Known about the structure:
single chain; alpha+beta; Thrombin, subunit H; six-stranded antiparallel β-barrel; six-stranded antiparallel sheet; 4 helices; rod-shaped
Amino acid sequence: MARDRSLATTDYTGPLRRLLLAVLVIILGATFLLWRIDSPRVERFRAQVTDRLVPNFDWAMAPVTGTINLLRDFQSYQRLSEQNQELRSELRQMQAWKEAALQLEQENARLLDLNKVRLDPRLTFITGVVLADSGSPFRQSVLLNVGARDGLLDGWATMDGIGLVGRISGLGENTARVILLTDASSRIPATIQPSGQRAIVAGDNSAAPFIDFIESPDLVRPGDRVISSGDGGVFPAGLLIGQVAADPGGRLRVRLAADYERLKFLRVLRHYGTEAVTDTAQVIAPSGPLIPQDDILPDTPAVANE
């Protein structure tokens, strides 16, 4: 029985589909012909049908309208993405130009400082070009293209356009090795202003050497100027080293004034040391014949001989 029912359903389905298809073709053909007839009456009829049916089909047009808007938005997002990529590329190029401009500006400032700086009139200097650095985290030094032929001596101070960089340690005929203030073997006597405290700037292979042996640490504040004291006669006094800063552990360090990241030119100061005082007696007593100590007799009372 079930098989007979399925056969009966199949027998009715085929003709029904063909009938519906024929009706749909007729309706579409009639609609096509109706829209193709050029007549005022047919035109009015078409207008009435359009006014009645089209407003009621807004719900059917919503997916189509949404799809079109989505495609437009996608195209707009695609154009925005392309413009964003172009802007990123231009921004990277502008950043490279900015970095180059900053480097040129800093180099120009250093050269101007080297040309116009006013040091002690008794000091003269010679400028050298940095050839290479040590390239080691355990030794902070650079190599200059000036040496013994230029009259350099071991121990002379070197500066960039702003602050103290280090000292000459090792001479060749045409080159000289400069030990930087950041090297672990560097120890520089310094004065902290405005308190006038004496201290030692000791390198530890970091960018900021620490300050040791301060007389009164309570008088020192971050931001105070650190200059060379001239003690020991190695460095001349008054050379700018940097400013006092405190690390996270509370230890005082020096924020160096010299730009160690861009050392290209260094000024070597010709400093032959302070003049030693050899005749201290003339400083204390006026010049004249010295009376031997044995000739000085103590005062004794006069004795009358009768």
